[in-house]
Task: structure prediction
Amino acid sequence: MQENATTPLIDRFNRRIEYLRMSVTSRCNLSCSYCVPAGKLSDNGGCDMLSFRDLLFIADVFARLGVRKVRVTGGEPLVRKGIEKFIAQLAETPGIDRLALTTNGVMLAQMAHSLKSAGLKAVNVSLDTFDREKYARVTGHDGLNNVLSGLNAAIDAGIESVKLNVVVMKGVNDDELEKFAGYTIRNKIQVRFIEFMPHTKGAWNAGQYMPVEDVKKRIEALGALIPCSREQWGGPARIYRLDGAQGEIGFISAVSRHFCWECNRLRITADGKLLTCLFEGSALDLRSLLESGASAERISTAIKEALMGKWEARPGFDSNVNDAQGQVAMRHIGG
Ligand code: SF4
Result:
């Protein structure tokens, strides 16, 4: 790995930033109920996306600041034309040695092999139900079979890490927890149960919130959960394995037990806004800097200054209230 870092990005709380989540589009081919407020179709959100050239320039600036992992998100990143070529170019950025993607998986089956050849190391697929009708109800699209084919294609292509992200919603998919856990028995995949977060106004529903401790108790009824050591780029998930299973099970307690003290990430929206937290508004407008012809050094300095505004932890939220806290819609951030 070529050394590219100059001064590491460290915030006021001594957290080192090594992970950048980069949204490349707000467009999506789904309209998930917990992302797109009821009745709002998932358009591009009026988002004027940065060019791939600008996104590569920004990625290089972050790599020089010690960022080593980049996760490409959306909206749905695979709907953006030229995404495979962009992933290949991003994989060439010196210093970035972990390239990941978050997708809804609907288009993954036909792209998994080319993404692997492009240098993709990890893919997280968002899937909240194995029930075809329910899938269509939650996402507004009859695409479950495509997603399952996409998962198999990602495993077949040999992408190092294939994970399934399940947002647990009471009364929606909490009747399938055992089925998701059972999926890890014969599949070399990591299924992660994620707490529904009070993020997007009009999409958050406190009545659907279920803490992962309750999810874990349900899974433990299936058999002993053997703790697994945390992988290098594993993020905040607590990982276990059911005895004899090929795959793993993760629990992400974003509401009940936050992990802000170890936050190592920054986010960029598709239109070039830098967010220092999932729940914060824009801390820096990278697009206007790029349009002003700012140098890499100037942008680097601006990023470091913006980082000094990163809070210690997200606002405490009471999961019982219908008070969503996100300041930028989830489809502009990609989680
Ligand atoms: S809520 Fe914000 S500060 Fe906390 S882990 Fe997430 S991004 Fe980091």
Notes: The chain has ten helices and 14 strands. The pocket of iron/sulfur cluster is lined by residues 258-260, 263, 265, 277-279, 313-314 (CB under 6 Å). The chain has one domain: 19-333.
